[in-house]
Amino acid sequence: xxxxxxxxxxxxxxxxxxxxxxxxxxxxxxxxxxxxxxxxxxxxxxxxxxxxxxxxxxxxxxxxxxxxxxxxxxxxxxxxxxxxxxxxxxxxxxxxxxxxxxxxxxxxxxxxxxxxxxxxxxxxxxxxxxxxxxxxxxxxxxxxxxxxxxxxxxxxxxxxxxxxxxxxxxxxxxxxxxxxxxxxxxxxxxxxxxxxxxxxxxxxxxxxxxxxxxxxxxxxxxxxxxxxxxxxxxxxxxxxxxxxxxxxxxxxxxxxxxxxxxxxxxxxxxxxxxxxxxxxxxxxxxxxxxxxxxxxxxxxxxxxxxxxxxxxxxxxxxxxxxxxxxxxxxxxxxxxxxxxxx
Length: 342
Prior knowledge:
By secondary structure, this protein is an all-alpha fold.
């Protein structure tokens, strides 16, 4: 039975009315005032605690920093950076086990936390038992850390640890260490072998040249030691003692002019080395430059030399003053030799 025109019109009006009501309700709901978001309050509390903890850490109040970070973690236990920061505070308190646990927890939350990786690797490295693990962590951090300077540091640390993982006699540093231990035990032959092996593995390792030079000098092989001292001066002229040692070698070989030049160079390169001033003074004394020699001895004394060298210096000062050959104008002697140097 077909609906009448009247019924159809009534149905259409009801549908339109429902649509209008729904539109009005939607508009009213959209204009209702927002209810306060209570979820931001804990976040603000955590932020305040972390800020206070960072301030305490910067002022070396590490116990307080740990307490504040712990409260922040209670509020927000999913923040990797706070676990990392508390780990750093624990590390400053030398509580390395707790620091390690915090770094591990930070990495469980965020595997890209490169600072936690680096700090955990540092603890492993210092312990000495987990060198391979430390190197592995540093390699991951190298890929993640965006700081150029730290990338350089990480690359260097990785290289050092990789050397430590090698058998000791397979790296230059390892051979040098072996040579030092043999030298301390008086085994000169083995010591020289390992120093030479270190140089073979790293021809730029001036420390190995210097150690072998001193060993050869002590053994009386002056020509060979001079060759090594030349290498040290070429590679690292600022190394304390190398110029003085080469000068002494030249002197023993009869080349006093070269010795004099080395001692002068040593004083210029390292004016805080009392040995350099002492040996320059000796050479000046040989040249009858008594005033300049005395000045060199005094300069050496002012640098607080060890007791043996101080005795030698005082003996030379007394010898120069007692020689009757010293010519100083006016009050030069009191100026050079005040009471604390006599």
